[in-house]
Task: inverse folding
């Protein structure tokens, strides 16, 4: 339910696509479905239908409260060791 946004294009994306600066993510959806469908088939799993409900809004900055906890966890090392390089 979180993969739907992989293939969306907002107004900024459309401008970049028209200027040939970025690839059009909408054009990748069918190939992605084919590839993932093959993996599901090999694993003998039923793939959800391509038109199933998908989460929306993350690209526009609409997130649940859970994102705050995830960001805090991910930022711990940088805050604990500023300037560290890996």
Result:
């Amino acid at each position: 339910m979180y993969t739907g946004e992989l293939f969306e294009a907002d107004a900024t994306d459309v401008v970049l696509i028209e200027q040939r600066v970025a690839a059009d993510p909408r054009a990748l959806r069918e190939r992605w479905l084919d590839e993932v469908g093959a993996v599901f088939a090999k694993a003998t799993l039923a793939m959800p239908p391509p038109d199933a409900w998908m989460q929306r809004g993350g690209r526009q900055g609409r997130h649940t409260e859970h994102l705050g906890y995830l960001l805090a966890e991910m930022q711990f090392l940088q805050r604990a060791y500023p300037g560290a390089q890996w």
In short: The CA atoms of residues 68 and 74 lie 10 Å apart. The mean pLDDT is 89. Helices lie at 11-18, 29-42, 66-80. Residues 4-80 form one domain.
